[in-house]
């Protein structure tokens, strides 16, 4: 199964992605994790991404697409995958369609809905480098401007499922499992 986990920063995507990945035995592909690894290893991609990530902006589509393309071509992605943090722009979504061939279509987009104030609290508690208040603000700005338009994009395909992310982790996970069990 090919799944996209979608939602604003701090909505719990990462946690849920790990749970789905374990339950379905499919790889968890987080572009945020891949980019953070690239930054730590000081690779060419890492050097390009570092400043933008530190400011809470979006890394260029070209850079992100190059890492996703390589990753989905990996043999462990043949039986499916869960994308976390990608796509984040309509252009990325369109390019993803081109990367995946006809038999590899995205089956389902899980949109985790949460309340913005609650998210900000969670992000501050998490305390990651890019979780400082003005950076959080920028990450929301990027989300609202660039990523929100993906909702109608996937809604018209009728593969978007809304999940209530304001519940405990276990309940969110149960809601996701219920949606996935119908595939
Ligand atoms: P995340 O862990 O998904 O919140 O990603 C952390 C940071 O990595 C984001 O704030 C962006 O700067 C960058 N990033 C991750 N995924 C993408 C993407 N699909 N497009 C552009 N930038 C991304």
Polypeptide structure, described:
The protein has 183 residues and is of the alpha/beta class. The chain has a single domain, classed as 3-Layer(aba) Sandwich (Rossmann fold), CATH 3.40.50.300. The chain contains nine helices and five strands. It has helices at 13-24, 31-40, 44-55, 61-73, 90-99, 116-126, 133-147, 150-155, 169-181, and strands at residues 2-6, 28-30, 81-84, 108-113, 160-164. It has a five-stranded parallel sheet, sandwiched between helices. Helix 1 (13-24) packs across helix 9, helix 2 (31-40) crosses helix 3 and helix 4 packs parallel to helix 5. It is globular. The mean pLDDT is 93. It binds adenosine monophosphate. Residues 9, 31-32, 35, 52-53, 56-59, 64, 85-86, 88, 92, 130, 139 line the site of adenosine monophosphate (AMP).
Jot down its keywords.
183 residues; alpha/beta; Rossmann fold; five-stranded parallel sheet; 9 helices; 56% helix; globular; binds adenosine monophosphate
């Amino acid at each position: 199964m090919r799944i996209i986990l979608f939602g604003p920063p701090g909505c719990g995507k990462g946690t849920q992605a790990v749970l789905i990945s374990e339950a379905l035995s499919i790889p968890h592909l987080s572009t945020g994790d891949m980019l953070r690894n690239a930054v730590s290893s000081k690779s060419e991609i890492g050097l390009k991404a570092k400043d933008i990530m530190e400011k809470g902006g979006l890394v260029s589509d070209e850079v992100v697409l190059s890492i996703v393309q390589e990753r989905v071509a990996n043999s462990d992605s043949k039986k499916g995958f869960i994308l976390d943090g990608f796509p984040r722009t309509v252009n990325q979504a369109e390019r993803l369609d081109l990367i995946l061939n006809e038999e590899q279509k995205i089956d389902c987009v899980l949109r985790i809905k949460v309340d913005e104030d609650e998210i900000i609290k969670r992000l501050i508690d998490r305390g990651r480098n890019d979780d400082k208040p003005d950076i959080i603000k920028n990450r929301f700005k990027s989300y609202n401007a660039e990523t929100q338009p993906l909702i109608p994009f996937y809604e018209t395909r009728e593969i978007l499922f809304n999940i209530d992310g304001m519940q405990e982790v276990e309940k969110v996970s149960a809601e996701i499992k219920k949606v996935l069990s119908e595939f």
